[in-house]
Specification:
single chain; 13 helices; 13 strands
Length: 417
């Protein structure tokens, strides 16, 4: 059996852990730069849609006394780790699927009452972290997502735990699940399925295998088998990332090339650090710049470019140099740039880098990067920078409603009087 454990309204729940007065009150959490709503408590859902642009809902926030928070990822990431640590005591087979979801696989638990096991998980996670969770058990990962949705939707009856452990329950659950709510069915595919009168997960399982294979590829066929209770998806092991990106929207528009170069260089060094952490190097970079597409009265310009490196690298210096060279080819004066980013591609393990006969990276870079990483680890993140980065400037997002980093910063610990 698989279990899908989902933290209920995770970001809002993290805020409530350290501010219990907000329990039962409407809460929303905003995206980077306080742009749009990315999380809502149940109490806020009737008034604010997911993705709602924050400044357009200012009056609604005030009218319904909705507490607004800027996203506090250091807090959410730490609370997520604490939840996962508790869950990992229930099964050695765990796949952390996202910051607020995890799959657990239970082998040899045939004589256990999994519902009791799920209730114990809820109690323990609540006791150690104060985060509420829902648990769905099923023979496959796709069905455990359905079971979790039922556990959460009818929590008054399920107490947060639901098991799809009989054929009757499976069919009833699939008939209840809308096709657009099935895990892995995107907007375009659901539109295509509805066009042929496939409106529920159960309808999807009634399609012939050959048709699903032809129209929706082997991925769609695997999903169908999962919904039929035939396991085809196993827990995934942690793998190195195939693409790494650092992209940001600017609080204020940038027009000067030097300002953009400083930002792009910072993004490239951020990518280089991520590569070094997973002991990888990249063979290519993509650099992009955007103007603000929401400002219809401003001239619009969006460009990107991919540059191939002559050798794989994870050096701040190399990636910064090539990123800025690429930026020069796409930059146009006269535009107000709102967003830029660097994406590294062609990622390979650093111990398998192919050396070039004619052009290679200065071997001193590796030792230098190790030293920089050690210094930054000891004296603080991003204290040692390249000379083309702004020494004084750290990336500060617009976070007017930011709560404290209660669990990750000594200076912001919760005070008890």
């Amino acid at each position: 059996m698989f279990a899908l454990i989902d933290c209920n309204n995770f970001y809002a729940s993290c805020e409530r852990v350290f501010n219990p007065k907000l329990i039962g009150k409407p809460i929303v959490v905003l995206s980077n730069n306080d742009g749009c709503v990315i999380a809502r408590s149940n109490e806020a859902k009737p008034f604010v849609p997911m993705g709602g642009v924050a400044f357009q809902y200012k009056d609604i926030f005030k009218q319904y006394n909705i507490t607004v928070f800027s996203s506090n990822y250091p807090l959410y990431g730490d609370m997520s780790q604490r939840v996962m640590d508790v869950l990992s005591t229930y099964s050695p087979d765990i796949e952390v699927y996202s910051i607020d979801e995890a799959f657990l696989q239970f082998k040899g638990f045939e004589n256990y009452n999994l519902d009791d096991y799920g209730l114990d998980m809820i109690t323990k996670v609540k006791q150690f972290t104060h985060i509420p969770i829902s648990v769905g058990f099923a023979p496959t990962k796709a069905l455990s997502k359905v079971a979790n949705k039922i556990a959460k939707k009818y929590s008054d009856r399920t107490k947060g735990v639901y098991s799809l452990d009989t054929e009757e329950k499976r069919i009833k659950a699939l008939k209840w699940t809308k096709i657009e709510d099935v895990w892995g069915i995107g907007r375009q595919i659901s539109k295509k399925l509805k066009a042929i009168n496939i409106n529920t997960a159960y309808d999807y399982t009634q399609l012939h295998d050959s048709y699903v294979r032809r129209e929706f590829s082997v991925v769609g066929l695997r999903l169908k088998h999962e919904l039929e209770g035939k396991p085809t998806l196993q827990l995934e092991e942690i793998k190195t990332k195939k693409n790494i990106a650092t992209t940001r929207s600017f609080a204020n528009n940038l027009t000067e090339l030097d300002d953009l170069k400083e930002r792009v260089s910072t993004f490239a060094t951020s990518c280089a650090l991520k590569l070094r952490k997973q002991k990888s190097a990249c063979n290519a970079l993509m650099i992009f710049v955007h103007t603000n597409r929401h400002k219809k009265d401003q001239a619009q310009y969006n460009r990107n470019i991919v540059v191939k490196l002559p050798f794989a690298s994870n050096s701040d210096i190399t990636l910064s140099q090539y990123a800025n060279k690429a930026l020069l080819t796409i930059y146009k004066k006269g535009y107000a740039y709102k967003k830029a980013g660097v994406i590294v591609m062609g990622i390979v393990p650093e111990n398998t880098i192919q050396h070039n006969l004619f052009e290679n990276e200065n071997p001193k870079h590796q030792e230098l990067m190790r030293t920089v990483d050690k210094l930054n680890s000891r004296i603080g993140y991003n204290k040692v920078k390249l000379a083309n980065q702004n020494i004084q400037k750290t990336w500060i997002m617009k976070q007017e409603k930011l709560s404290k980093r209660y669990t990750t910063d000594w200076n912001e610990l919760l005070e008890v009087q």
